[in-house]
Structures are given as C-alpha cells and as structure tokens.
Specification:
Layout: H1 2-7, H2 23-37, H3 39-44, E1 52-56, H4 63-73, E2 76-82, H5 93-111, E3 116-122, H6 124-128, H7 140-152, E4 160-167, H8 175-178, E5 185-188, H9 194-205, H10 216-222, H11 228-244, H12 252-273
The structure holds adenosine-5'-triphosphate.
Cofactor: Zn(2+)
Organism: Ammoniphilus resinae
GO molecular function: metallopeptidase activity
Length: about 270
C-alpha cells in the first residue's frame, strides 16, 4: 500500500525549492549534507563522518519534505519508515525491519549507481523514547538494532549511509540516540512566519487556476499559526470550493472558507483527542 510505495522510491523528486520558508533549517541541512557529498575532503580534515541528522519541530512543518530534498540534493537512494509502524510488532520483527531498511537502501543505491543512501525514520520518538529503569519495552530490540546499524556505519563504506529522523518531541528521545556519532546534528524545523507562509501558499497554488483578485499576502496574514501542511490544505480546500461552485477560478471567498474550514478542523481534532 502507501507505505510500500514510499519505501521503494529510488530517488525522490522533492527539491529544496519546493519547500517554502525554513531558510535557516535548509541552510544548516545543506551544510551538513555537503560533508556527505565531499566526504573525501571532510576525511582529510579528520572530520568525523556524519551519521545522523535529527529534524525536530511541530507536525506538518516539512520534515519529511526536508528528508526527501536531502536525498535529491545528495543524489542518494531513499528509504523511509515511521516509528508508529513498529508499535504492535512482535518481538524481533521490528529489529528485522530496521535491518531490512539498511539493506534495502544499500541495494537501491548500488542498483542506481548512487554513492550514498538515506534512511529516514519519521516519529523516531515512538521507537526511540526514553528507556526508564528496568522497565522492559517491546521496542528495545528495535532501538538497539538501530543503534547497531548506526554504529556500524564507517567512512570507508560504500555506499555511505546517512540516517535522518524526525520528531516533534526531541526531549523524549533516549540519550543513547543523541550521543556523538549518532544523531549528533539537530535541526529545528519551525512553524512558518508570515513570509514563509506566503512562499508555501505560492508553491501550492502554482498549478491552480487563481483569480487575480486573490491576495495571497492577505491569506498568509490570516493563516497565522498554520503549519505548511495546513497551508497546503487551505489551497486544496479552496480549490474544492471553487470546483463545487463550478467557478473557473479560485476566488478570495474560497480562501476565506478554506481558512475557516482548516481552522475548525484543527479544533475538532484537538477536542476529539482530549
Ligand atoms: P509530520 O511531523 O506530521 O510527519 P512533517 O513535518 O514531516 O510532518 P511533511 O510531511 O513534510 O511534514 O509535510 C506535509 C505536507 O505539508 C507536505 O507534503 C506539503 O504538502 C506540506 N508542507 C509542509 N511544510 C511545507 C513547506 N515548508 N513548504 C511547502 N509545503 C509544505
């Protein structure tokens, strides 16, 4: 299904230009990735090989997009998994899944003649949460396997593997993951400010029939606090309203409805979660 398809893309077509805002995060990330691209030069300086990059920040801010853009930027093979898929796995299955991810990315890179591969794990906190005392947790084997794979990465290895992970609860992570040589780069991915919201709205309206009357600056101002994912929803909802009304173009009122809809949707989500 969806997950399988996501795991089997040799390369993603998301580029950093497709990510609105996040200038600082993109800068930090590309700087780190340049070490991967110029790994021989980095080695000459005795720079410890970069193994893990942790993206932290609220949901829907583009962490997955960043990981995909990173794969594109470095011409790396890309495999992805989410911490939540490890939740109800039998003992040992999670560890096997981790081994497979690393094996798959290597195979994929070799097949496509790529010199590096990226393993992306979304919601890493689910499998890498703090281990407390003697409390036995079913994901311990999975986490241990991940640590083993990370420790096994060497500079001489070909293809070079980089692990990227995302979480919105960095404080929850097991210390073992944050030790030097593991996820030792943390990059914050924050909610977009007004300028970034405008950029994101522009990205997601590029392929839509927009009326000249729509003022995206105003839409950006009215969507204070929205994440990139919510802004994408706004553009999609606006298009749905236009379609429903058989309007040839997306009009200002469609955006007003869409903002309200997305805002209300959030509210009901939150209410039902509590
Ligand atoms: P989660 O933590 O919930 O997994 P995430 O931070 O990984 O979220 P993404 O999955 O990357 O967020 O974003 C979801 C969708 O929201 C993207 O596919 C894209 O359509 C839109 N989006 C989010 N952030 C941006 C952005 N900065 N620029 C453009 N689109 C964005």
């Amino acid at each position: 299904s969806g997950k399988k398809a996501k795991n089997s893309v040799p390369k993603t077509d998301i580029k950093f230009e497709d990510i609105g805002g996040q200038e600082r995060a993109k800068g930090e990330l590309t700087e780190a990735l340049d070490f991967l691209i110029q790994k021989d030069v980095a080695a000459e300086y005795g720079i410890r090989p970069l193994k893990g990059i942790l993206l932290t920040g609220p949901p829907g801010t583009g962490k997955t997009l960043m990981a995909k853009a990173a794969a594109n930027y470095t011409n790396s093979a890309f495999v992805a998994a989410s911490g939540s898929e490890f939740v109800e796995m039998y003992v040992g299955v999670g560890a096997q899944r981790i081994r497979d991810l690393f094996k798959d990315v290597k195979t994929m890179a070799e097949k496509n003649n790529q010199s590096s591969g990226i393993v992306f794990i979304d919601e890493i906190d689910v499998l890498g949460g703090k281990r407390e005392g003697s409390h036995h947790r079913e994901y311990d084997q999975t986490l241990n396997q991940l640590l083993t794979e990370m420790d096994g990465i060497s500079t001489s290895e070909h293809p070079r593997i980089l692990i990227m992970a995302a979480t919105n609860r960095a404080d929850m992570l097991d210390e073992a993951l944050l030790r030097p040589g593991r996820f030792d780069r943390k990059i914050g991915v924050d909610l977009p400010d007004k300028k970034a919201r405008l950029q994101i709205l522009k990205i997601h309206t590029k392929n839509k029939p927009m009326s000249g009357d729509v003022n995206l600056e105003q839409v950006a101002a009215e969507s204070y606090g929205f994440s990139g994912a919510q802004l994408e929803s706004v553009t999609n909802e606006a298009a749905i309203y236009a379609f429903r009304e058989k309007s040839k173009e997306l009009l200002p009122k469609h955006f007003s409805f869409a903002i309200d809809k997305v805002m209300m949707g959030e509210k009901t989500d939150r209410e039902t979660n509590e």
